[in-house]
């Protein structure tokens, strides 16, 4: 029987999301016939190494956020020679750092929102862009720290700069009106595109993980040409970073001038959530991939760069 260690928890702002993902993956892998050990990852590296001895046949990486999906845990597993699911260290690091991933997308002529990466030391002197715009930490996920700033908002630029001074770098992007589209890529093939709608200001942390806070429309009810383009852009983005396993590609679809509208890529998520409200399992299920079958495929395609 294949022995799988599921890494979950971690010590990022997404710890609770990771624990939810991990719990579902442990149950799903056991239902699929694997021998599973659940490992709650903390800053105690010695404890992690002990939990991975003897080495499992594969690690299922259910960690989210810094250390879990930015190449660092992947590098450790590479050193240990243990195959793991999802992308390798380099692709994970590039996807997590939005300045690097945006540069790679630009090289491949993948459409992006106009944006500026502002280091912490330059934020004080950086002039406010024309509203509306979006501010986000450069290396966070699950919409942690994201702010939408519209013309009618009372938020001052000084207050915003003070808020973002806690982050090493900040990404500021032109706000793209329209609709939220996400695509699941598996093994270099797009399985489908979903649209997310929410009554909240945007698809934030609460909308992502609280039942009833968002509506998922699968397949995304957009113009067929735009749908095909969304799939193509997702695969190109996945490939541009050298991702493997599965990834979820987030896009904005501006149809305010009518359809077909314009698409821009926001980011690639190399560790899509596996919670009850997550989009990756929902898209996969619509394409005929049950949760257990998807997890099995990920384990069977686990690899390391050792």
Verbal overview:
The protein has 306 residues and is α+β, with helices and mostly antiparallel strands. 32% of the residues lie in helices and 24% in strands. It has helices at residues 15-31, 45-51, 72-80, 89-96, 98-107, 157-164, 205-209, 224-240, 279-286, 291-300; strands at residues 3-9, 35-41, 58-61, 115-119, 133-137, 147-149, 169-174, 179-186, 189-197, 215-217, 246-254, 262-269. The protein has a five-stranded antiparallel beta sheet. A four-stranded antiparallel beta sheet has the order 4-7-5-6, with no helix packed on it. The mean pLDDT is 92.
Short description:
The chain has 306 residues and is α+β, with helices and mostly antiparallel strands.
Strand content: 15-25%
In the predicted model, the low-confidence regions spanning at least 5 consecutive residues are none
What average pLDDT do the residues reach?
A: 92
Structural class: alpha+beta
Shape assignment: globular
**Distance between the terminal alpha carbons, to the nearest Å?**
24 Å
Largest sheet entry: 5 strands, antiparallel
Strand order within the widest beta sheet: 10-9-8-11-12
The share of residues in helices is: 25-40%
Q: Got a strand count?
A: 12
Rg over C-alpha atoms, rounded to the nearest angstrom? 19 Å
Compute the number of helices: 10
- Return the string of H and E elements: EHEHEHHHEEEHEEEHEHEEHH
């Amino acid at each position: 029987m294949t022995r799988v260690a599921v890494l979950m928890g971690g010590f990022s702002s997404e710890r609770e999301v990771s624990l939810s993902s991990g719990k579902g993956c442990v149950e799903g892998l056991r239902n699929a016939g694997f021998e599973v050990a659940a490992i709650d990852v903390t800053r105690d590296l010695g404890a992690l190494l002990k939990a991975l001895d003897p080495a499992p046949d594969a690690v299922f990486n259910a960690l989210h956020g810094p250390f879990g999906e930015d190449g660092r845990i992947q590098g450790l597993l590479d050193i240990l020679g243990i195959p793991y699911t999802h992308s390798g260290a380099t692709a994970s690091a590039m996807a997590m750092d939005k300045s690097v991933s945006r540069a790679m997308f630009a090289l491949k002529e993948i459409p992006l929102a106009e944006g500026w990466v502002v280091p912490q030391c330059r934020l004080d002197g950086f002039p406010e862009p024309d509203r509306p715009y979006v501010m986000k930490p450069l290396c966070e996920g699950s919409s942690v720290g994201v702010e939408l700033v519209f013309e009618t908002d009372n938020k001052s630029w000084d207050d915003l700069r003070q808020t973002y001074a806690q982050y090493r770098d900040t990404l500021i992007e032109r706000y793209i009106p329209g609709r939220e589209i996400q695509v699941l890529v598996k093994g270099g093939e797009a399985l489908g595109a979903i649209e997310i709608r929410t009554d909240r200001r945007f698809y934030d942390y609460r909308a992502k993980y609280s039942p009833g806070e968002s509506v998922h429309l699968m397949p995304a009810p957009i113009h067929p040409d735009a749908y095909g383009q969304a799939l193509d852009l997702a695969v190109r983005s996945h490939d541009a970073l050298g991702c493997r396993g599965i990834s979820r590609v987030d896009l904005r679809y501006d149809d305010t001038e009518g359809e077909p509208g314009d698409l821009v890529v926001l980011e690639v998520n190399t560790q899509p959530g596996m919670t009850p409200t997550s989009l990756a399992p929902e898209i996969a299920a619509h394409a005929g991939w049950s949760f257990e079958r998807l997890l099995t495929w990920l384990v069977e395609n686990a690899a390391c760069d050792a």
